[in-house]
Write a structure and sequence with these properties.
Elements: H1 2-20, E1 52-58, H2 62-65, E2 74-77, E3 83-86, E4 96-97, E5 103-106, E6 110-113, H3 119-132, E7 140-145, E8 148-154, E9 160-164, H4 171-177, E10 185-196, E11 199-205, E12 225-230, H5 232-264
Helix pairs in contact: 1-5
Length: 265
């Protein structure tokens, strides 16, 4: 009797495990080992409203760059020509915030429209304005995002809004940070919703094919929304299978417990 009960319990556990086992997806099915595929190394994020930018101006004569780097605090030029920030002890918000009109207020140069520009375009604009104003000859300008973010929703293991350093984030990066697609995901229908000017556009990516590398949504832009579509039709069947399997296991376990308790008494 005990042996039979053990067999029943073992069979039930195997049945339940088969219903809940993790599913593996086959990505990039048409890629060929050894074949080379071009990489877009010139990808740049586009500056948008509510972005926060770290903009630094450098020069061979550090003291000339000081007025352009005063943002949220003062600066001190050392005897060796180095420039150090001087904190006044107050909490200061870093970077230049892009307002709703796509503008920033930049020292000396005033209001600059950077919304809709790529990082290199904004950098070149600031550098040219500094040169044209005869403030600095051959200035070096660097721009970095301080709050690059995107949102991942749908059939993933960890829904949320993610903030990252830098601006070179791929669709695979975003999904990996979100724990990957869940067992109920359609990896051939990954939607990316993007703000383009005053409109929103949606792109569809298929992770099963190498064509995803050429998709306009392979590299994410600021504030993108990644939505992984679930398998709605199969979702109900899978959930019912899980519920039935769990119920059966509970019933069998209860029956086995009662029989064992009865046999002992």
């Amino acid at each position: 009797m005990k042996r039979n009960l053990l067999i029943v319990a073992l069979f039930s556990s195997i049945l339940l495990a088969s219903c809940t086992g993790p599913k593996k997806f086959l990505y990039l099915q048409d890629m060929v080992p050894g074949e080379k595929y071009p990489v877009n190394i010139k990808h740049e994020a586009v500056i948008m409203s509510d972005d926060r930018l770290n903009i630094t101006v450098s020069s061979k004569n550090p003291e000339l760059a000081v007025p352009f780097n005063i943002h949220g605090g003062g600066f001190r030029v050392g005897s060796d020509g180095s420039v150090d920030a001087v904190s006044d002890g107050a909490s200061v918000e870093k970077g230049y915030r892009v307002d709703v009109d796509g503008n920033i207020e930049f020292p000396i140069l005033g209001t600059l429209h950077v919304g809709g520009l790529k990082v290199s375009e904004a950098r070149d604009m600031i550098r040219n304005l500094i040169e044209e104003g005869n403030y600095i000859k051959n200035p070096l300008v660097s721009i970095e995002f301080l709050n690059f973010r995107y949102t991942v929703m749908g059939a993933v293991n960890s829904i949320g809004t993610y903030r990252v350093e830098g601006d070179r984030v791929t669709l695979f990066d975003a999904l990996a940070r979100a724990g990957g697609p869940s067992a109920k995901a359609k990896i051939d229908k990954i939607a990316v919703i993007r703000e383009v000017g005053n409109d929103r556009e949606m792109y569809i990516a298929d992770l099963r094919t190498k064509d995803v590398f050429n998709s306009p949504c392979y590299y994410l832009q600021q504030n993108d929304i990644v939505y992984v579509e679930p398998k709605y039709l199969k979702k109900d069947a899978e959930d019912r299978g899980w519920q039935i399997g769990t119920t059966l296991l509970s019933v069998i376990t209860a029956i086995c417990s009662i029989i064992w308790a009865t046999s002992v008494l």
